[in-house]
Amino acid sequence: MGLNHEFYLISKTTVIKDFWIHRESSNDVIESVVIHDDVIQYIMDSLKWIPSQNPAMRGNPSGRGINYHGVTLFDKPSSKTLIGIFSSWKNLFKNATASFVLTGAYVYGGTLKS
């Protein structure tokens, strides 16, 4: 089956802790998408360009990229970069055949290959 990453567009007035517990029944979800981990891994370098915040850390510090194992917050200023990156990947994938395989960096015999 594999790992899937869930992304939610919610209001900035949403209480994150409460939302996460009740996200399936929450009325705070404006939009959502699920992306398989293989795709996330493939595009990870470009995700590191997105300004973000990590609510799992004290003080909700600002940084870049996604919290791979938890919640990541993107604010309005982040949205321009976020939309640009995902739109670019979407446009690239639209040129692929109906069925395709993503190949990225892998380890074979102790040497990193691409």
Report on the structure:
The protein is of the alpha+beta class and 114 residues long. It has one domain. The chain contains three helices and six strands. It has helices spanning 16-21, 37-47, 76-93; strands at 4-10, 29-36, 51-53, 62-64, 106-108, 111-113. Strands 1-2 form a two-stranded antiparallel ribbon. The longest helix is centred in the C-terminal third of the chain and has 18 residues, at 76-93. 3% of the residues are buried. The model has no long low-confidence stretch (mean pLDDT 82).
Map the helices and strands.
Blueprint: E1 4-10, H1 16-21, E2 29-36, H2 37-47, E3 51-53, E4 62-64, H3 76-93, E5 106-108, E6 111-113
Antiparallel strand pairs: 1-2, 3-4, 5-6
Shape: globular
Given as residue ranges, the uncertain stretches (5+ residues, pLDDT < 50) are none
- Annotation, overall tally of beta strands: 6
Give the helices and strands as they follow along the chain: EHEHEEHEE
How big is the Rg?
Answer: 16 Å
Category by helix and strand content: alpha+beta
Biggest sheet: strands, sense, closure?
Answer: 2 strands, antiparallel
The total domain count is: 1
Helix content: 25-40%
Q: Strands across the major sheet, in which order?
A: 1-2
